[in-house]
Amino acid sequence: MGRAFMANERAYQAPQRPVLAVCADGWDPDYVDDALERGLMPRLGEVLSGGGTYVIGRAQVPTFTNPNNVAIVTGVSAAHNGVAGNHYRDDAGQEVQVTDPSFLRARTIHAAAHAAGVPALCVTAKDKLRRLLADGGVPSFSAECAHEQTLPDGTPLLELVGAGNPDIYDWRLSAFTIDLALAIARRLGSLLVYASLTDFVQHSAAPGEPLANSFYGAIDAALGRALDAGFVVGLAADHGMRAKTTADGSPNVRFLDDALAAAGVTGAHTLCPITDPYVVHHAALGSLAWIHLDDLGDLDRARGALASLPGVEGVLDRFAAADAFELPADRIGDLVVLADARTVLGKSRAAHDLGSLNGRLRSHGGLHERDVPIIVCQPLEPDGLAGRELYNRDLHDLLLNRLA
Ligand SMILES: [Zn+2]
Known about the structure:
- The structure is a single chain.
- The chain is an alpha/beta fold.
- It is built from 15 helices and 19 strands.
- The two termini are 14 Å apart.
């Protein structure tokens, strides 16, 4: 038997052969089902018919990128790891991006592996995640900024792959991320590799559209290269993706600061935890928002005004939401607003640039993007799933502890 290491009170077996865990950003199960059905992912189809596993699991709510990447790399919920959004409001009332590892309340599985002498590596498409994933001194790189990065020995990353890195709004960036991870892993001898992709394609195209077809074909080929290089390969999505539009195709948005002002609630601040630097994806519009109130005496009036908006399906107070969704109560709003499947939530009409969306809006964040694919390309032990409800945060447990 190999060595084990502990991360957040769970033991993980040190891998005997290299493991590639992929965060498949925005892979609603509909994309995977469509691509498999139409033969666009022949390598994945082959491993699934050869004993691999594909199940629908659950994502962390809110169904945004940072909370779910951090859940996957720590193996625990946001209540334990402290990351409930891409973005948050600090004690001084300033809105801040969640990029600094000091924000983490749990160590990553990769940091624990690294400390135990298991060579670990993280490669992310979006540079915004790079510093979080570097927690504990884990070598961490981004495809977005690969042209500026070097290995510890000074080798430029692009020299390893022999190609330039695609732009952040280029559909080829995710497949490039996998190839970059494989090339760095080969050079550094990494055994536990995490690759986090980007959901630009999923924000831009529905299952079956030409852009999605090209994307899933290219990813399948990259996964094939990982399998051919001897990697144990697994994937979990961070969240699903849905069209958030009215019948005429225009963005279906409720502006919550505007609605609260109209109801006479002053001193309310809507925070959109989807906010990140990649505005072409979603214009900072997602299906869940926090409301911070200057005066908690306004709580009931604010809740009433928000609950009466069409497209709002739930308004929870801070503690009810923390309890329902395993969230850190001190890092969410006084109120948590949930939109229905076709609706997104914003601050005010003036605060969001709908023009950046190229005329369509597909997004995520709420309860309707909680179902995610979890895929393991090797057979699991007979009771590997053990009848339990799986979360995307169980991916490393499956890949390190549950293989046949
Ligand atoms: Zn995402």
